[in-house]
Queue: 2 jobs
Job 1
Amino acid sequence: MEGIDMGKPKIAITIRSFGEGGRALERLWDQVSLTYHNTSSRRLTEDELVAVLRDAEGVIAGTEPFTSRVLESSPLLRAISRVGSGTDSIDHGAARERRIAILTTREAPVRAVAEHTMALTLACLKQIPQHDRAMRDGKEGSVPGRMLQGRSVGIIGLGRIGHQVARFLEPFGCRILYFDILPAKDVGAAWEQKETLREVLEESDILSLHATPTVSGKPILDEEAFHSIKQGVIIINTSRGSLIDEDALLRAIRTGTVAGAGLDVFRTEPYRGQLLACPQVIATPHVASNTRESRDAMEYEAVENLLEALEGGGP
């Protein structure tokens, strides 16, 4: 770690495994004084954040818990630059009260997350992990998969990633439905906008979630939603774990209402719950955006956002 230069803004890097590509760190060295760099390969706790942020004016962050206690214990902090787009782990009210800017990397992870969404979708339809396990266990016979062609795919949340997923789906010959509370731009000519969430639930063979968390924190797919859902649906979630009532999903899988689920995000992570015992569930540990290319781009964008904010120009 470089020595602290009192004439430069002091920043901490609390996200784990930052700078492995080198480009983002190289951008930082001449611009800031680095007070802390997390090289532990694990997510920091609240107590650890309190300890390492006391002198920091800015922070390169992951999904660490930036609670009101952490922010109140960081008197110099002016900006939190998140490597990624989710800010669920940050207390927004406390940040507003202390005039701490919250910055995200919205563009860099789009294609990587959309590709991961497609991978989970195809893996669920073709039952690739199940076939792999059966072969390794020396079992014969197989359950037939399903085609993506001709399926009705409901996209809940047509932002950057939802758009990219829809574009990926077009060559497969899917019927694309979408629902969003905000007006959508650059919509495909054949995409069908639905006025209510229930219409998408009732008509979709596959549901792909790309919405932001609700203000109340209430899941979009709750017990009531599962009563409206199409029988045999496949659910894909690469957005936020809070969008699904996991207990309701578990019941829907056990009754056969939900035929399969591809989940990259969970309400509590790392996830150790009962969904992992369901062979119909394909789970990945919040890695949709974690490709070498997108990670490098996100880290660099996070650095640029932070430097701009600390210079007073705003994100």
Job 2
Amino acid sequence: MSTRQSYSTVKTKLISSYAWDTAIDFIQKTNSDNEHSDYATNTPEGNYLDTTFNYTDIEGNTNQIKEKEDGVLVPTGQTTAVNNIYDMGGNLQEYTIEKSPIQSYAAAFYPYINCGGNFGGPSNRFPAGNRNRYSDGSIGNEWSGFRIALYVN
């Protein structure tokens, strides 16, 4: 990207929880369909257990239907975009670089925080503003993904 777009440097890293919260604030402030508190606490857009929508699967099969109560992972970009941002609330929880504040035996297994919700949970329980300590270890990995931040100079 740096050579094709004439940028001097391009860097990426795993998204921070601060960047996650900033993206949610951007959505809430610029999308009139979402009040500030609604998007962080109740995210109707996304691939949740309690949503139904049509999508194209990873093999290009169109008009697939994801029904309510179907826990199905769909390709990124198949849910409703909010301000051209996809899957902030559903599909996969996102790894972040935020350290877990939990000081217990479990913290050794789950040292980082996940944000958002996933295809296996309801939108009102795991909205875009959700924080979950299960980012490492055996719990939650099948529902966890990552998002990178792109820094361009």
